[in-house]
Design a protein that fits this description.
The complex is a heterodimer of chains A (about 160) and B (about 160). Chain A is of the alpha+beta class. Helices cover about 25% and strands about 35% of the residues of chain A. Chain A has 4 helices and 5 strands. Chain A has helices at about 20-30, 35-40, 40-45, 55-75; strands at about 10-20, 85-90, 100-110, 115-125, 130-145. Chain B is of the alpha+beta class and about 160 residues long. Chain B has 4 helices and 5 strands. In chain B, strand 3 (about 105-120) and strand 4 (about 125-135) form a beta hairpin. Classes of the chains: A alpha+beta (about 160), B alpha+beta (about 160). The interface of A and B includes residues 31, 33, 68, 88 and 153 of A. Strand 2 of chain A pairs antiparallel with strand 2 of chain B.
């Protein structure tokens, strides 16, 4: 298992790749973000995007999926996130795009009240043309080495 | 103040006023949906499995934070987005997952316009910062964020 102490400022990572299908773009849009350019191929052609594009929240969900798989591969003792500093949808994600994510740890600090540590991470998602489509800067929480597992939170 | 009050037609940049506040939405969170989203996008034990979640720091099954974001965009689609002359959002800042969202929660939204500015490079566009606060039926704040939305200028 890798703990908070094993994650260093400046560490970079590669979260693998993910190819997006039209079917999943439509399914996500139907359930959560039914704007015409996410949901309807013909309407999307007439929109400013010139074709079907994924919901930005779908792109974020895909990045999360890739992060969870990365944590599992690396055996990182992640215990969630308090939030995201910034998220920018820079370019559309389209059916058939193959997405990769590269990450960099920019900050790290210990919790004063709980047996965990925090890291701030920048994650850039790129398409097969090398364009950055999404940038997310957020904070992750990790167990600390040799500490008891975080107890049930007082607020839950 | 309600930014839709008495208006007909889409809301343009000029129709948006700093301080505009609206409350809307009703999203019933089910265990099935939490697990379905988690299987696809966030397969961590405390989003997937009741027993594993009980043993976790959260003490029971909770929704993926990104799932709560997806529920927010659904509530915005069902209320604000169809009436607004927008060309989408650039993204958001300052997202806070304040409290876990659990099965049985009924979520609603409060939005507030924080800032607006004309675009220097694109005269047909204005940039509006809107805070969204997602709360449960007992008034507990679950998540908040500030969206950066592009509105069209009135033609």
């Amino acid at each position: 298992m890798k703990y908070w102490e094993d994650i260093k400022v400046g560490d970079t990572g590669d979260l693998g790749s993910y190819t997006v299908t039209e079917k999943e773009i439509l399914a996500f849009a139907k359930k959560y973000d039914p704007q015409p350019f996410h949901l309807d191929r013909e309407a999307a052609k007439r929109s400013i995007f010139g074709g079907l594009i994924a919901s930005g929240w779908h792109s974020c969900a895909i990045m999360m999926r890739m992060s969870v798989e990365h944590m599992r591969r690396e055996q990182l003792a992640g215990v969630g996130s308090p939030g995201i500093d910034s998220c920018r949808w820079l370019k559309p994600v389209r059916p058939g795009d193959t997405l990769t994510v590269r990450t960099e740890i920019t900050e790290s600090w210990r919790s004063k009240s709980r047996p965990i540590g925090f890291v701030r991470r920048r994650a850039d998602m790129l398409n097969q043309h090398g364009e950055v489509v999404l940038t997310v800067v957020g904070v992750g929480m990790f167990e600390r080495k040799g500490e008891p597992r975080p107890a049930r939170r007082a607020d839950t | 103040m309600n930014s839709s009050g008495g208006m007909s037609g889409p809301l343009y940049f000029e129709d948006v006023t700093v301080g505009d506040t609206e409350r809307f939405g009703r999203y019933e969170v089910t265990r099935e949906e939490i697990i379905e989203y988690a299987r696809q996008f966030d397969p961590q034990p405390f989003h997937l499995d009741e027993e594993a979640a009980k043993a976790s720091p959260f003490g029971g099954l909770i929704a993926s934070g990104w799932h709560t974001g997806a529920m927010l965009i659904r509530m915005l689609n069902d209320h604000s987005i169809p009436r607004a002359a927008t060309t989408g959002a650039l993204g958001f800042d300052d997202l806070k997952w304040v409290k876990p969202v659990r099965p049985g929660d009924i979520l609603s939204v409060e939005t507030r316009v924080l800032e607006k500015a004309e675009s220097r490079s694109r005269p047909e566009i204005g940039v509006v910062k809107v805070e969204s606060r997602v709360s449960s039926q007992d008034g507990e704040l679950k998540m908040s964020l500030v969206s950066i939305v592009l509105y069209r200028r009135r033609p």
